Amino acid sequence: MINIWKKVLLIMFTILIGRYGFSSDQINISGYRKTLKGRDFQYENYLVDKEKYLIVRAQKEINVMEWQTASLPSDFRGGRVNFLWIFAMDINDTKATYHFYIDGVKYLTFYNPEKVQTQTWTVEGEKNVSLTFKGKKLDRYNDLQGLASLSVPAEIVKKNKPLNLKIEVEPRSSSVWFMTFKHDFSEKLEIIPQNIMLKSGDENLQSLVINYDYLGNPGEVTIKSNFGANVTEDIRLGPNSYELLFPSINSPQQGQITLYLPENKKVERDVSLEPAYSSEVWIAPRMKKREKLSKEKTKIVWKIGKANNIASEMALGLKNYEKFLAKDFGWEDGYYLIGHSIAKEDWPCIVPGPQNSWGGSSPVAGVRTQYLNILFGLNNKIKKESRLVIDLLDVDPFSPPLIKVTVNGEAFKLKAGNGSKEKILQGKLKNAKEQVFEIPISDSLLKKGGNHIQIRGLKGGWFAFDQIRLETESQFDLIKPEKAFIRQIKPATYELEREQNFQPLLVDLEHLSGKPSIKVKLDGKNIFSE
Fold first, then answer.
1. What's the N-to-C CA distance of the chain in angstroms?
2. 41: which strand partners?
3. What is the average pLDDT score of the chain?
4. Burial of 269 (0-12, 13-18, 19+ CB in 10 A)
5. What are the pLDDT digits (tens) for 47-96?
6. What is the pLDDT of residue 305?
7. In sequence order, which residues have a C-beta less than 8 Å from that of residue 30 and are 6 or more positions away?
8. Which of 120, 154, 124, 114 is nearest to 136 (CA)?
9. How far apart are CA 428 and CA 150, in angstroms?
């Protein structure tokens, strides 16, 4: 037993697949179990952490795929069988025609979407057969991924035998494609310890990822463990993924996790926990509200935005997220200068991740990550530890971001949990899932003069800001920029060969307005002016 029951257990969860109808007259079983024919393909999947697909294209050489489903149990007495699998589909204004076969007989025909969408649609076929596509996520190329459900009358299905499913696309010298993901839904519990150390406030944490394919009635799951509090969350048809954070351990421990599912079903699994030996410390969202400090003790050095869960004080506005590139945000040489820049004009409220096509990632351009730079100057050195607070209004619910924050060259990684499934990008903020990260900044890291903070989304999808602020309990004197801002002054690490060798002094500055002059003194003597 792990004697940490008084500690807090945080569950950041991902509900990956939407809700489908289910009754005692129906059964959901896996729509993929074995490949019979087709070309394998590697492609990113945003619903489960695997990448193997079967692919067909509107080309004669690769226009057929065929696979087997799971078998219908012999004790089923209902009227319909739903076969489920994960699909990906090209969204393309070139229309492709796909014919769908069951055991060699064609039952229906469907077409690829011509416009970007994540909606659900159903194709009706012969003999009361239907195929439903529930789009869940657009990938970085704006193509669709989701859950396919083939609904078949029970009399068509032989018990204890699989169906052979086939998709044949009419060839037309086009690269338009459809993919069936090679994932077998079998209601298995998978527990994956993560070898990373997470820091939340003053507490060090570790994490477990719990994956569970669920084929029953949507409802609630209660997760119990012997190393944390009981937690109840939603569970839906298809793959579900949960991340459990628990206080870090110093030696190997044995634990147990139990899932209490709808219809009185229970799944148990023992788990071996090892200490996290990673040299990197990642930052997790704050697990509990920090005690409020007196205004005399904690001071805000600077802030961008207001902590009001609206983000209206920043540029773009959530509804205009697609204008991120048009407004020239995300470039490596751009910056926000404290005391000079204006949040409403110069700081975007939302940042696309590498998975979001509206951030510039595409098959032609490749993967594009965004850069946000914050510059600020101090007239004195801060003598106590400070805290950089990254307050996120919400993040991409299907592809939570991994964010890298660099403070004067020292890097921190922020591991976000899943965001709300509400339409945050349409401005519906009632159920937004705020995540607050607190990065400890040592007194030696901030310096007198220019300081530089950089924020980048390394993986995953978008993240939206509520506020960014720097807090300290030390006295500080913030520089008010005027005509120019000196970012850094340092001697070069090389020499120039002239009549005698010279070591250059590098002065990095930003011109803000007017015609400022610059003078450089060394040992009290002017050595440069311009």
1. 71
2. 53
3. 85
4. middle
5. 666 668 899 999 988 999 999 999 999 999 899 999 999 999 999 888 99
6. 93
7. 69, 70, 83, 84, 85, 184, 185, 186, 215
8. 120
9. 33
